[in-house]
Amino acid sequence: MTAPVVAVATDEGRPDFGPDDVDALADDLLAILGPRGVTSLPRALDRAARDGSGMSPILSAQDLGTPDLVCYPRTADVVPDIVRAAVARGVPITTRGKGTGNYGQVIPRFGGLVLDMTSLTEIQSVTERSVTAQAGARMINLEQAAWGRDSQLWMYPSTVQSTLGGFLGGGSAGTGTIVHGRNHQGFVDALDVVYATQDAEIVHLDGDDAQPFVHTYGVAGIIVSASVRVEPLQQWRCVYASFGSQREAFDAAFDLAAIEPKPRLLSADGAVVTAALPDDPALVRGRASVRGIVDARALDEATDLLVASGGRIEAVREGIAETVKLSTLSYNHPTWWLQKAQPGRWFHMEVRGDALVHRLEEVEQVYEGGMLHLEVGHQMMFGMLNGIYRNPAQVIDGVAALEELGVGVHSPHQWYVDLDADRVHALAQRTDPRGLLNPGRWM
Q: CATH class for domain 123-233+417-431?
């Protein structure tokens, strides 16, 4: 399914339910969860109507929806009870973690029930192959548990406070992507999922059977718990280097991608974006920045390459707290910091391809004020191209120019399922026959 770069939310796919159905469901949930397990208080509804889509001026201008109820399961076994009650009343269900995603995927398009999974935080086991945890467990806690067993996650998101279920349901990348690619390509060993059916139960899925439920925005099933891959712990070093020019920094990052073992993370920014990042002596104002989480075995090679490329090593740090800190300066975060420094001014497009380095100046000229944040990804450069926001038409107009330069473009200004949507839609028709799971996600 091909979708436009910028989409406007419509009422297509709205379930047929009303206030009486919501009131009846509220009574059902009180019986299941008790008075502290369900709410319609305005503050709770407002919180459940927000996520990271505020990064997009296009999404921020749209009314993406507000729930009628929010519920908070504290044990996994009540999730099927909640789902059966909602299905019986015909009320839509939107599953939510920490709401750190940037695409409006956890905002309930047509109201209904928001199922907040953040109380389901148990880490159930860590083995040599995988860590198993409930959907509300935070990714940083999974990483810490793995480190305690001399292992590490295959990947964890730059927003380390995101939940396991939210990361798998909405995420498509992570800090480990240089080696392993996106998280729907081998990260998940098993899932426990609840379908939106009248006889809903927890369904256990292993291996290939679990993969179709990853990165579906919760439209095909509710992830209750998951087993995700770990690997032997590497001794990581966090390297910060500064450069006199953005060109030098980006060229160095491109070359650094070839070292072995591969870095876990590799980011680069010009001086303007670097200046918007949190204060740190390793982020030198007025200079471009290259930051990497590098295997200790490759540290000498990496620092020698950075210096030979015109860089200056500003810091080398170690420990899980430092790797987490550096990861929060990657992916969408530099754009967020730029927007925070100059509110209402910037938008971004997600872009990919070696042209981001080889044709950097041309890429940045596509949008007014263009500044590129660069990530080294799995077999490809990718990043966030920031520009001064004028209107949606301006965003769309730049896409053709970028593609002519050999740049792939993905829009962060959308709220619909955008990865293999036809397959996901076919799956959802089987697991959610009434279209009650996070409806309104199709173009």
A: alpha beta
Stretch 98-124: mean pLDDT: 94
Backbone angles phi, psi at 71, to 5 degrees: -125, 160
Smallest CA-to-CA distance from 302 within 368, 375, 377, 236 is with: 236
Give phi and psi for 421, each to the nearest 5.
-65, -35
CA–CA separation, 437 and 89 (whole Å): 13
In the CATH scheme, what is the homologous superfamily, with its name and number, of domain 236-410?
FAD-linked oxidases, C-terminal domain (3.40.462.10)
Two tokens at 87? Answer: 């299905």
End-to-end CA distance of the chain: 8
Q: In the 8-state DSSP scheme, what is residue 119?
A: T
Question: How high is the mean pLDDT of the chain?
Answer: 94
* SS3 labels along 331-378: CCHHHHHHHHHCCCCEEEEEEECCHHHHCHHHHHCCCCCCEEEEEECC
User: What's the token pair of residue 176?
Assistant: 């480990």
The torsion angles phi and psi of 117, rounded to 5 degrees, stand at: -95, 5
The HSE-up count of residue 221 (CA atoms within 13 Å, CB side) is 29
Q: Burial code of 360-383, b = ≥16 C-beta within 10 A, e = fewer?
A: bebbbebbeebbbbbbbbeeebbb
Predicted confidence band of residue 280 (pLDDT cuts 50, 70, 90): very high
**Domain residues of the chain, as ranges?**
19-116, 123-233+417-431, 236-410
Strand duo 113-116 + 93-96: pairing? parallel
pLDDT-derived band at 7 (thresholds 50, 70, 90) equals confident
Residue type, position 314, single letter: E
Q: Are 324 and 382 in contact (CB under 8 A)?
A: no
